[in-house]
């Protein structure tokens, strides 16, 4: 949707909050439920309340309607609850409660394609091309040279006082390029909707996606010649991807609220929220998920967090979509891909070695900037690696993956360099610097599909981010 629409939708949702999301008053406390299901499998829900609703009222309503509280974020009026009752959403209100997990288990209708893994793309799979760790890897980091990261690192690698929250599948804590950057004290698992700081909750299990993203942001392995964009900053592993490869709304809300609590200057979000691709702010169920995520993102921005997100790998302009590829429902201007559709989020498209849009990358008016995500059809010269960016993977190894998931952490790394240089700069200032220091990438022969002027078009936004400009 257009930038104007991005501003309008949250305003409309907020205006409706009083009617849709009000908690029961003390004088109208709900009566105890007659009978609750005790045998069926439980599902997690996000549940909306007016911000600052007392927790006792939340507890009372959830109990009365056959739910159990998992977490409550009073600052934004969002609870995470579990319930075994199939009618829990109806009891709470279809505009106040939503369960992504239940929609996965019981799809509303047959979809044109199965629910995808959150870390696998629709047109460009992020299969890993492994490389031998005995090699000097610096020659293969064409993506870093494209944004002048090696030159920037000679000036500054960033500050240890800056932490980037990696909302993803977890970061391997023992990887030689990451063990010095990872800060376990501010890492957490969020898949239940409540933060869990035990290492098992935030460490990766079956996906190295978050480990790859982390290496691009702040990896450093002198012995192997590998260096990320901002090797001097710290990383927090905020695990929001479950073992089925899904990022559900409650996990995302928890992740953004954790980032807000710890005031991370930057987060990276290389995903979209499942099980749909689009969430619609006026649709039952969807409205609750959209609003819960919007509130969490907006709150984190207010607490000084710049959220950077991948544009997506479906190869389309979301503004021109009329149906959701993952769920059978129509799309209009009230719908968006979360979290990138939320106002204030930096939306990143991908380019390949040749510097042109990756074939799989989404595009549109909402693109802020672009960065290397790779393209297997844009191959670098022999000896400079494969067409996908190289980074860290499981077991202390290195591999290459393609995707806007790989473009986004390049931007998060540059944002971390800016946050290191301009301490306590608000997110709006960091975003302005990212965009205005970016190197112009005009549409060229991609017009008329690519629309807009050289410095702000639908393929590349304000241009390719520049790490060197961020530090000098």
Automatic annotation (TrEMBL):
Protein name in UniProt: Serine protease
Family assignment from sequence similarity: Belongs to the peptidase S8 family.
Residue ranges, compositional bias (Low complexity): 109-118
Catalytic-site annotation from UniProt: 168 (charge relay system), 209 (charge relay system), 405 (charge relay system)
Keywords noted in UniProt: Hydrolase, Protease, Serine protease, Signal
Region of interest (Disordered), residue spans: 109-131
GO biological process: proteolysis
Limits of the Peptidase S8/S53 domain: 160-463
InterPro entries for the chain: Peptidase_S8/S53_dom (IPR000209), Peptidase_S8/S53_dom_sf (IPR036852), Peptidase_S8_Asp-AS (IPR023827), Peptidase_S8_His-AS (IPR022398), Peptidase_S8_Ser-AS (IPR023828), Peptidase_S8_subtilisin-like (IPR050131), Peptidase_S8_subtilisin-rel (IPR015500), TAT_signal (IPR006311)
SUPFAM superfamilies: Subtilisin-like (SSF52743)
Superkingdom of the organism of origin: Bacteria
Species per Swiss-Prot/TrEMBL record: Amycolatopsis coloradensis
Pfam families: Peptidase_S8 (PF00082)
Leader sequence segment: 1-22
MF term (GO), any: serine-type endopeptidase activity
């Amino acid at each position: 949707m257009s930038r104007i629409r991005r501003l309008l939708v949250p305003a409309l949702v907020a205006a409706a909050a009083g009617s849709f999301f009000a908690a029961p008053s003390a004088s109208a406390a709900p009566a105890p439920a007659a009978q609750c299901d005790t045998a069926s499998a439980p599902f997690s829900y996000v549940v909306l309340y007016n911000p600052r609703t007392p927790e006792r009222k939340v507890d009372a309503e959830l109990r009365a309607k056959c739910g159990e509280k998992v977490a409550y974020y009073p600052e934004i009026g969002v609870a995470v609850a579990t319930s075994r009752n199939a009618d829990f959403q109806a009891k709470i209100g279809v505009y106040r409660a939503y369960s992504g997990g239940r929609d996965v288990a019981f799809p509303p209708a047959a979809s044109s394609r199965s629910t995808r893994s959150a870390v696998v793309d629709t047109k460009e799979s992020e299969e890993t091309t492994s490389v031998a760790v005995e090699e000097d890897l610096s020659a293969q980091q064409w993506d870093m040279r494209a944004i002048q990261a090696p030159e920037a690192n000679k000036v500054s690698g960033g500050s240890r006082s800056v932490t980037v929250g990696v909302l993803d599948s977890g970061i391997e804590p023992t990887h030689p390029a990451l063990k010095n950057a990872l800060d376990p004290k501010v890492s957490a698992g969020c898949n239940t909707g409540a933060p869990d700081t035990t290492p098992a909750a935030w460490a990766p299990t079956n996906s190295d996606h978050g480990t790859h993203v982390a290496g691009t942001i702040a990896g450093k392995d002198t012995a192997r010649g590998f260096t990320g964009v901002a090797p001097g900053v710290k990383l927090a592993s905020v695990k929001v991807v479950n073992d089925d490869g899904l990022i559900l709304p409650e996990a995302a809300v928890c992740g953004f609220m954790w980032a807000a609590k710890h005031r991370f200057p930057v987060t990276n979000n290389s995903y979209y929220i499942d099980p749909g691709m689009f969430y619609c702010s006026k649709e039952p169920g969807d409205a609750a998920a959209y609003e819960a995520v919007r509130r969490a993102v907006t709150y984190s921005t207010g607490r000084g967090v710049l959220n950077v997100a991948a544009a997506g790998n479906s190869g389309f302009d979301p503004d021109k979509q009329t149906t959701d590829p993952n769920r059978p429902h129509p799309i209009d201007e009230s719908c968006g891909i979360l979290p990138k559709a939320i106002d204030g989020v930096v939306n990143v498209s991908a380019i390949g070695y040749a510097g042109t849009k990756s074939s799989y990358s989404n595009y549109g008016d909402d693109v802020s900037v672009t960065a290397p995500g790779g393209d297997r059809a844009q191959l670098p010269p022999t000896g400079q690696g494969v067409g996908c960016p190289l980074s860290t993977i499981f077991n202390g190894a290195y591999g290459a993956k393609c995707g806007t998931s790989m473009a986004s952490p390049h931007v998060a790394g540059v944002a971390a360099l800016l946050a290191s240089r301009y301490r306590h700069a608000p997110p709006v200032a960091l975003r302005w610097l990212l965009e205005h220091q970016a190197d112009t990438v005009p549409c060229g022969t991609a017009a008329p599909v690519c629309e807009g002027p050289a410095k702000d078009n639908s393929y590349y936004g304000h241009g390719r981010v520049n790490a060197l400009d961020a530090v000098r």
